[in-house]
Design a protein that fits this description.
The chain is an alpha+beta fold. Helices cover 46% and strands 16% of the residues. The protein has 9 helices and 10 strands. The strands form 3 sheets. A 5-stranded antiparallel beta sheet has the order 1-2-3-5-4, sandwiched between helices. Strands 6-8-9 form a 3-stranded antiparallel beta sheet. The longest helix is centred in the last third of the chain and has 22 residues.
């Protein structure tokens, strides 16, 4: 009954929402955002839980007539959460800022349709974000593994180029995401690359602390690339070279990235016994930033 009542009550608003949604951000009325949050909290039959981890739950809400929305709910309490709310550095704030910036670039991201802080009556949830449903998504890790298995080198090159372009566009837009992994790059049902989940992303001009953030961002992408492309690790040098040439990280960012990758490979060796050796060649002459004089590393 709750599902039918909600669909009847909100049908006109959903229809209007479709008309007014633009290329970046459109707001669902506050009362509907609250209603969607309540449906998820109450585990209504129209709300399907599709992910729950690290204090976050993600639901797909079916609205009838083939329409659906994605609802993210966070559980953040205590003094630390309060400080992050007051300083606008919460997961919701970071995702909102990054999505707004990237929506203005040539990067496909889920459109944010509404967001609210939640009061105690929505406990245990404290924040909610409503997003467009992009349909069934496949992670780039899964897609890449299939292409590697098929031995389609041309398609591998195309995917690598797309990953490099996306990463460069993100940094050009001032978005630095330490969780920029191939698991957060997805392929839509139409075959289009998209980037999701920006809860730990930082947005702003390059400044103090940005070198480390950029280094972590690059290391996360390279690290997941290494794990995904195995056993063809001979491709890693070329991919990393192209990535550095396009993004043009500073010396400090490169150093941070290399340190993080060393740790990732050491952990892989400890857990699985897989020993990977990677040699990064000198940057191409076309790169105009000052790379480290010697950027040859061997990981054993």
């Amino acid at each position: 009954m709750r599902q039918a009542a909600f669909q009847t009550d909100s049908a006109d608003r959903v229809a209007n929402l479709d008309i007014h949604v633009d290329a970046s951000i459109a707001d669902i009325p506050r009362e509907n955002v609250h209603r969607l949050a309540k449906l998820c909290r109450d585990e209504d039959e129209c709300a399907t839980l599709i992910e729950s981890r690290d204090g976050k739950s993600v639901f797909r809400i079916r609205l009838g007539q083939g329409k659906s929305l994605i609802v993210k709910l966070w559980r953040r309490s205590g003094l630390k959460a309060l400080v992050r709310r007051l300083t606008h550095t919460s997961n919701l704030d970071r995702e909102l800022r990054a999505s707004e910036r990237l929506a203005e670039c040539d990067i496909t991201v889920p459109r944010i349709l509404g967001h609210q802080r939640l009061d105690r009556k929505f406990s245990p949830f404290t924040d909610v974000m409503v997003m467009e449903d992009m349909g069934e998504l496949r992670t780039m890790m899964d897609v890449f593994k299939e292409v590697v298995k098929a031995g389609d080198d041309k398609r591998l090159e195309e995917i690598e180029d797309e990953l490099v372009r996306m990463t460069a566009a993100m940094t050009d837009a001032g978005v630095y995401d330490p969780d920029h992994s191939m698991a957060n790059v997805v392929v839509t049902e139409e075959g289009k690359l998209a980037r999701i989940d920006f809860e730990v992303a930082r947005s702003g001009q390059y400044g103090q602390g940005s070198d480390k953030l950029l280094g972590l961002m690059l290391a996360r992408l390279i690290g997941t690339y290494i794990f995904t492309v195995q056993p063809h690790t001979d491709r890693v040098d070329r991919f990393t070279q192209r990535l550095f040439d396009q993004v043009k990280p500073s010396d400090k960012a490169i150093s941070a990235a290399m340190g993080e990758i060393r740790q990732l490979l050491a952990e892989q060796k400890r857990q699985s016994g897989i020993d990977v050796e990677i040699r990064l060649i000198q940057p191409s002459d076309s790169a105009d930033n000052a790379y480290m004089n010697a950027i040859t590393h061997e990981f054993h």
